[in-house]
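CTP synthase, pasting as requested.
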Amino acid sequence: MKYVLVTGGVVSGLGKGVTASSIGVVLKACGLRVTSIKIDPYLNTDAGTMSPFEHGEVFVLDDGGEVDLDLGNYERFLDVTLTKENNITTGKIYQSVLHKERKGDFLGKTVQVVPHITDAIKERIESVAHVPVDGKEGPADVCVIELGGTVGDIESMPFIEALRQLFFSVGHDNFCLIHVSLIPVLGVVGEQKTKPTQHSVRELRALGLTPHLLACRSAQPLLDNTKQKLSQFCHVPAANILNIHDVPNIWHIPLLLRNQNAHHSILKQLDLLSIATPPDLEAWTRMAETFDNLTDSVRIAMVGKYVGLTDSYLSVVKALLHACIACSLKPSIDWIAASDLEDDSAESAPEAHAAAWKTLRNAECVLVPGGFGDRGVLGFERANSAEFDKETPNPVVIFMPEGSRTHMGSTMRLGSRRTLFQTTDCVTSKLYCNAQYVDERHRHRYEVNPDIIEVLEEAGLKFVGKDETGKRMEVLELPGHPFYVGVQFHPEFKSRPGKPSAPFLGLILSAKGQLEAYLNRHQNGS
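Structure tokens follow.
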């Protein structure tokens, strides 16, 4: 197994995830099979209980893993299906070591960070790296590892030490370290400063790891003298100093790396030049350039709870982008805080209330990602969700019987679940190519109360998708409406560039009045 380790220095939020994903894309384009691991040094076992305000969205995998949003980038960029094991956290490592200690597996030894924690990290990395994620037999050729946080963080020290040991054990030709750093420009002179990167590399080397390549983030392309300075003081050949400057869209990043021969430097370090092919990135080039050249747009109102941090809905935004590009449109998203639409806000914040409603009325389509808030239905007095009002006499949404009321982590209905369409003569089934069923990813504790389904359907709603028991509601439509679709699952998690999610595609097509023509074409097999 060959390993590519991506670390970050100077500041967080430099785009290590996109860089790691793009490196994977370029290596895959060279004919290699690629898998990915994200290391998160926080003590949480997984991202499931973390607020979106803290860490962005929680990405859900097929196996029910609640993981860091960077794994969503890996899946979208590399078109692979990862598992919860591809996200390694401090919490998981310590939990496994302490479980062994309680069982007596250490035979009375003093359990320490070195060697027991570091050994557990190495074992976890090596075992996960050999699990295929691309639907083929056997392990991948290269495993791209992203170490979260910034070099020098106390919480990441055990991982740095474990990775140093891994480098030593697998050998020089099987390990490539790429350090992502920042080249700031200060003052009116506009000089590109290398000192922060020098300090970051020095700290990394003091911990026993020397980068083979530098990936330098900057607003503008690096100057030649900046590269020479970095090469001289960071002990990295000038040819191995990559510049990831700001680009119109992130799909340009793999192309940027290819144009700087990043693949050649990585393949040379990993002794893979003899089996790799020249990178074929024609599809990526078309995709990036198509997006750059789009002129027509569609106005989308996104009504949510966490609109203050757009990373909270990262996969939803990406799914909208994929759907829009499939329709040759550029997404224009207007973010609306759900609370600003409430009647109460008309008195407490009248300007925000008026602005929110004006934005909503001007939109061509409305997307509500996830469930929240109180809303009356069917004239039921105090109709509500049991999540918000446990004493409501008319619970329209109820707690799932199999859920846990005492534990939060990994107790929801999670992962890929099958939805059976009750009829193929419905918009959603047609968008899924007349499928009789669909497998989508779920993340919820509450569901529509089965006892009121009949009343809801008599009032006009139609539940066209149900789970395999036939009792749990999965998809609803409002007949006669241009496009009114609600789904229990999260279709955004399986959307890919070039393969947009069906419900999102339907929304965009309907917003532009193209849905019926699209469905007719696909009904006729064209």
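Note for the archive: The two ends are 44 Å apart (CA to CA).
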